[in-house]
Design a protein that fits this description.
The chain has about 140 residues and is mainly alpha-helical. About 50% of the residues lie in helices and about 0% in strands. It has a domain of about 100 residues. α1 packs across α2 and α3 packs across α4. The model has no long low-confidence stretch (mean pLDDT about 90).
Length: about 140
Amino acid sequence: MPYTDLAKLTARFGDELLLQLADRDGSGMVDAGVVDGAIADTDAVIDGYLAGRYRLPLATTPPLLADLAAAITIYKLHTYEPDKKIAEDHKDAMRGLREIAAGTIRLPAEGVEPEGTGGSGVRTNDRERPFTEDNLKGFI
């Protein structure tokens, strides 16, 4: 399940910006294939950051991930240098993904259990030390 889609991108950024970025054939229509490719690339990046901490695919898309996906996708749609706001949003989204991967930000999703040792507490394996008169000679 993609973290964003064309409808969400249109609602957030508007038809005009998407038309400028995704009308590659000059038809006056957004090329859905171009947008789908950018969304697929974005999903791969996000999954790469989430894979070590969360069970994928996620059952639902948390709002934070939808926001990060939109910022990354619109950045990826640019063929030339984006304006300052979009570049800053992309940089912030990537920082957010790094913080999610590090565990600083937690998502409301099922996580991957860390590998455990199977035991807790201190465990020692040492030989028995019986105290007898013979081995305590000189101390008694």
